[in-house]
Specification:
By secondary structure, this protein is an all-beta fold. The protein is built from no helices and 13 strands. The mean pLDDT is 86.
Length: 160
């Protein structure tokens, strides 16, 4: 069976962060892809992937892979922590995640990788976690703590 596109072609490009609403009352797997620019921030803010607009109840961990080290970051309960900015630089990014919603009573589980590039350097992240929630999937958002993101997104669904 082929993947089902959850974002129409006219909605794949985003200019001021990403939020897509839909009703998905089926269990299955989602592949999420984001790429673009992160602009206009003043510190080293985090970016989160959030389900149904919820900013609590997540159990996530993250490992940052920098130019000279690997560091565990987290835990974070405000969203799936997919990465963070570095040194007040505008950045380019790519994020790939798998979100599973196979047993409704168990909620969502997510894992993925991301890369953030800036001024000849880059940061990579491996992230994973879960959120207990049995209300189905109504929205997915990519939310930076500061600044804004613009780019392209694809969300594909495969039934369980």
């Amino acid at each position: 069976m082929a993947y089902e596109e959850l974002i129409t072609e006219d909605r794949r490009k985003f200019d001021n962060n990403f939020r897509e609403e839909f009703t998905l009352n089926r269990t299955g797997f989602l592949k999420l892809f984001f790429a673009g620019q992160w602009l206009d921030f003043d510190s080293t803010p985090r970016v989160h992937l959030r389900i149904n607009g919820k900013a609590d109840g997540y159990i996530t961990n993250n490992a940052r892979i920098g130019p000279n080290d690997v560091v565990a970051e987290g835990p974070d309960q405000t969203g799936f922590y997919v990465g963070r900015a570095e040194s007040h630089n505008d950045m380019i990014f790519t994020i790939e995640a798998t979100l599973s919603y196979v047993y409704a009573e168990a909620g969502f589980i997510c894992h993925g990788i991301s890369s953030f590039g800036y001024s000849g350097n880059s940061l990579g992240f491996h992230f994973q976690g879960n959120r207990i929630q049995a209300e189905g999937l109504k929205s997915i958002s990519l939310e930076p703590a500061e600044g804004f993101m613009r780019g392209h997104a694809r969300i594909l669904f495969l039934p369980a």
